[in-house]
Inverse folding.
């Protein structure tokens, strides 16, 4: 087996600028953070791509925006739940718990007043109605919470881990070696 950084290839532990539990951090923390960014675009514009916006109805766009908002909320709760056990600093843990409580107790009820579905006069077709003002408030709150929780996650090495004794030149050499030897 090939060796890198003193570990056998395929091993989970490595030293460097990334978290030593990289597979867990990538799947349980970084993936939901990345999904959050995608849902943020959909919540803001109604679709991921500009070209899609020309082909969807305003009603479908409004429904997509609300569903994306709910998924933004879900992503934040997953990130907090998956990282609380690994956060060592009490103040950072408290900050994450406060964010979780805010999402569950304040934002969750607000999402439900962002939209309504009404039957048209004939009673056969539902119409999805988006209320922009409460929607914007929830969108802004979720975005602020996202930005706030990234700081304690990073301070606890769940996004980038610190390696105090490594110079920039050593880091560059290690990255080049890693790319060459691991592909």
């Amino acid at each position: 087996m090939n060796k890198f950084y003193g570990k056998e290839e395929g091993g989970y532990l490595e030293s460097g600028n990334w978290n030593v539990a990289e597979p867990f951090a990538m799947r349980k923390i970084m993936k939901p953070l990345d999904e959050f960014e995608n849902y943020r675009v959909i919540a803001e514009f109604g679709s991921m791509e500009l070209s899609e916006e020309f082909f969807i109805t305003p009603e479908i766009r409004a429904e997509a925006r609300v569903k994306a908002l709910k998924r933004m909320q879900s992503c934040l709760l997953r990130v907090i739940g998956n990282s609380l056990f690994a956060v060592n600093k009490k103040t950072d843990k408290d900050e994450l718990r406060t964010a979780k409580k805010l999402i569950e107790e304040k934002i969750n009820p607000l999402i439900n007043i962002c939209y309504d579905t009404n039957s048209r006069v004939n009673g056969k077709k539902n119409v999805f109605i988006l209320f922009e003002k409460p929607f914007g408030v929830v969108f802004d709150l979720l975005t602020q919470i996202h930005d706030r929780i990234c700081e304690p996650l990073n301070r606890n090495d769940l996004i980038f881990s610190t390696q105090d004794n490594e110079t920039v030149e050593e880091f560059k050499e290690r990255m080049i070696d890693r790319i060459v030897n691991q592909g």
